[in-house]
Amino acid sequence: MRLEYFEMVDRVLAHDATTLTAEARVPDASPVFEGHFPGFPLLPGVLMIEAMAQASGWLMVARSGFTRMALLAQTREAKMRGMVKPGALLTIAVELLQESSGYAELRGVLSEAGRKVAEATLRLQTLPFPAPELESAVRARAAVIGLAA
Amino acid sequence: MSPAASNTFETIADIIAETASVDRAKITPQAHVINDLGIDSLDFLDIVFEIDKRFGVKVPVEAWTEQVNSGKAPAEQFFILGALCDRIDELVAAKQG
Question: Which of A100, B8, B25, B96 could pair with B85 as two cysteines, CB 3.0-4.6 Å apart?
Fold first, then answer.
C-alpha cells in the first residue's frame, strides 16, 4: 500500500469471473498515521473501504477486458470490525453480487491473518475509460499488481 | 399502461416507496420519477438494482441514457412511471420470448 497515492492493492493473488483476492501490506510509516492517530497509528476505516473498493474495481476492469474503468458510487453496510496497525498484511476478497447496466454490486471482506477486520457492500459505476492516459495508467498498474490485461 | 403494466406498476411503486422513502400515495402512473418524486441518481440506482432482481432483467440504463442524450428518445419514455412500467414489461417479454 502507498496510502498517499491511494495505491491500496499490492498484488492480485487470484481472480476469476466473479471473485478476486488480493493482498496489501500496510506501510510501517505514513503521514496518514501522524494524524490518525498521534501515538496510536491505525489504518483509517475509510481506507479499509477504499481497499475493498479498489479490489472490486480491479475485478470489474478485468471483467470488461480492460475496456472500462470502475468508480465507487455507493457504500452499504460497511463495518469496521477490527483495528489495523502499521505493518499489517491484509487480504482483500471481493465477490460480484450483481451486475447491471453500467453498475455493479460487490461484497468485500478485508482480513488480517484470517481475522475479518472490515466488510462492506459496494456499488461501482463502470464506464468506458474517459481519458487515454487513465487507460494507460490502469494497464501499467495492473501489470505491477499481477493482473493480466 | 397495458394490463400487464398495471401489475408491474404496483411492484415498481412498492420498490420506489421502500428504497427511496417516497410516500406511496404520491406514486402514480403519471408521476415523473425525477421531477415529481424527487428521485436522484443514487436512489434511481437502488431502484434499478431492485427492479433487476425482482423482474429478472437487466435494465439498460446506459442505452436509455444514450438515447435521451442523443435526442433519439424523450426522457419521458423512461421517467414517467407508466412508461417505465411498459419498458420493464418489454424487457420481461423479450427475455421470455
Answer: B8
